[in-house]
Amino acid sequence: MTMLFLLYIRYQSGKNSRITYVLAGKCSAGISLIIGRMSRKEFFAGARAELPLLLGVAPFGMIYGVLALKAGLPVSMAQAMSLVLFAGSAQFMAVQLLQNGTPLVVVVLTAFVVNLRHSLYSASVAPYVSHLPRGWKTLLAYLLTDEAYAVAISHYSEETPLEHKHWYYLGAGFTLWACWQLSTAMGIFLGVQVPSSWSLDFALALTFIALVVPVLEDKATASAALLAGAVSVFAFGLPYKLGLLLAALVGIGAGMLGEMVWRRSG
Amino acid sequence: MAALWLTILTAGLLTFLTRLSFIALFGRWQPPDWLRQALRFVPPAVLSAIIFPEVLMRDGALAVQADNFRLVAALVAALVAWRTRNVFLTIGSGMAVLYLLQWLR
What we know:
heterodimer; A: mainly alpha; 78% helix; B: 77% helix
């Protein structure tokens, strides 16, 4: 546990701090006694490969922390969501839906649907982790986010021996995890300082715009977005906010149909 | 409050099980192609389904008009998101437009 904490410090405080280097040195020595040099090397290589992605993740973590608090969530719950759910988009959506008074079952269903894409990552890394014991699989599954997957799978697909690569995955996943927890905490801290007169509820909608624009990469994804949006407006009056799930289904169907049509026509 | 905690725990458990699914099932079942295709459209569909009512509606009724400041601000933010891909600039520009319009009125 102490070692994990020291690792955590090392990644949060930047490479140039002498103190953290001393700490990291001690902890590396400790780790190498227990887990061997190759594993340690892989762990730190994975952590290093994850660092550039943190630039994109940390702002979202902070914004999430601020907005969760402004939406009325208690501090403990805002942070717990980052620990338990550990999924950016789903956390933002849960905050928005809770703020709108959406029935809790619909909140859970929406988070589930949004996170379904992780099953594809799961299928993709499955062959590489099939030899590991159950505890490792459980840990790596918990850490399987978009950003950790991206880094781990590129290492797995290199044609080098598989033996220590799960340490690389762990290094990447743990680094992202630590960044997400810490940036959430910073956001919560900032959120406490923000005066309650600032109406920040619209910032959530703007965050979704920042999330959706980059995924509109072709006609099929654009039609999925447009149709889902339109259905969501016209089905707004449905009970239990079921319009949201209906809209998502219609949008997904429209995207698949669009892809079939446009692919055939070249 | 207890219901909220239960919501978070259930959503978290479902997310974890999703992530564990094929790792645990390896060799027994692979995701079919239609599922792979469908999941590509989940983020744009769900995100838009949340955004559209937030900006196009007011008090439960359609409000596509110039005095719907949220709509104007959202359009500016979408343009900024498209050009910059920067989350801070997107939120900053949208909030700035909203506050400016409210102040001008």
